[in-house]
Amino acid sequence: GYHGSHIRTPQLDRLADEGLRLEQxxxxxxxxxxxxxxxxxxYPSRFGVLSPAYGRIFDDSIATLPRxxxxxxxxxxxxxxxxxxxxxxxxxxxxxxxxSYGYFHGQVDPYTHIYKTGVPTWHxxxxxxxxxxxxxxxxxxxxxxxxxxxxxxxxxxLYVAYSVPHYPLEEPETWTQMYENxxxxxxxWYEASVSHMDAGIGEILQAIRESRNxxxxxxAFMSDNGGQREWxxxxxxxxxxxxxxxxxxxxxxxxxxxxxxxxxGGIRVPAVIRFPGGIKPGILNEPFHVxxxxxxxxxxxxxxxxxxxxxxxxxxRITSADSRPSSPPSxxxxxxxTPRGVAVRVSDWKLILTRDSGKPELYDLANDPLEEHDLAxxxxxxxxxxxxxxxxxxxxxxERSE
Length: 402
Known about the structure:
Layout: H1 10-18, E1 20-22, E2 25-26, H2 31-40, H3 65-70, E3 75-81, E4 99-103, E5 122-124, E6 127-128, H4 135-149, E7 156-161, H5 173-176, H6 185-209, E8 219-222, H7 264-267, E9 271-274, E10 282-284, E11 288-289, H8 293-300, H9 315-319, E12 333-338, E13 341-346, E14 349-354, E15 360-364, H10 380-394
Parallel strand pairs: 1-10, 2-11, 3-4, 3-7
Antiparallel strand pairs: 1-9, 4-5, 5-6, 8-9, 12-13, 13-14, 14-15
Helix pairs in contact: 4-6
């Protein structure tokens, strides 16, 4: 809502009013890479992760965000989607979480909680369980429970990873009736799912307000990639959606392209921080990459950054509300890699190299935020410099074998 959508999100709108809006926040083009970047502070290509991934992703010794926070006394919990390794071995408790609940794999059916291949995936503390209810409500209830029951004697790190508005979508009438005039029906489901999630976020925020640590709680909201255009399957989820094609889902306008793409429509997403004890409300108009969370949150609790982290410590930039810089440090780079291409951003210049076209594309995001004017032919020296930077960054990437 706070970005002008007619979807009703009163809780997120309030969060945005009370917090700091990160208006140039960048995720990765798809889910697993974003999650890997979030909890490691490294570009996911350092682990060979370029797209949704399974099997083993991390070495056992990896310094994850929950593991590092545990070392200074935090209780760590996840409620929702994991998707950074496959059961039974490579699951949340193995990588630093004390409490885990939700689903291991990629997207689940909202009510049956099965993965698209028909296998079970719902668990509590890394052991399969059966639950009744809508996935949004289950994830919310666990998050609220953790806040009220597990955060009494120790500080808490809670990672809440909702399933919606990822397909497949099925929403109770309570939420769909709010959008009964929206067509096609898949867009109605989408909008209803966002309002349903928004209400769950409201319950979580209320639990925080009722806690003794409300003023000292740092809340961050973000998406893991840009919106998806459509989806249809005749066979997945035990054929449950063969007659329910999702012909219209997300809307990324005015940004260019969809989930999976290297243009900003695929990677630039809404993000908000609220921290009453340390961050004033406002807007930060400079790039913030998902890999920045690791060093930033560690700095917040007094942990020194590791030299092998790709992320930047953004703590000073988000806390200095009255003197927030209008542009990022010139030497800062942001990097994305997918099976179909790579991209890098330095200052306001962004270079995209895709395997499909075989030619570079260069955009001046300060003057062309919608990436409508390719300047590669007019700026050959800049293209060459950014190509060389891409090659240097990629030297630390690895090839992953499933």
